[in-house]
Amino acid sequence: MKLTNQNKADLFKTFGFKQSEKDSGSSESQISLFTHRIKHLTEHLSVKKKDYAAKLGLLKLVGKRKRLLAYLKREDLDRYRNIITSLGLRK
Length: 91
Fold this sequence. Notes:
By secondary structure, this protein is mainly alpha-helical. It has a domain of about 60 residues: CATH 1.10.287.10. About 75% of the residues lie in helices and about 0% in strands. Helix 1 packs across helix 2. The radius of gyration is 14 Å and the shape is globular.
């Protein structure tokens, strides 16, 4: 499932800090985008177990999301808690 511009705009509007369609730079927007891509890759890997390139991409995305979450937790704890609860991430 490819992310179209409309899907990205919906993600940014829903989870972005500025709550606008063009907010693609905030940490919340990036984390929501990474989470969507991680879910998609996880579903793909449940079917195609030997797709090692996708597995490597998944691990890189998880690492990027983890670093962004650590940054957000360090800078603004309220925004961190909001994004964790809205995306349903365990922390």
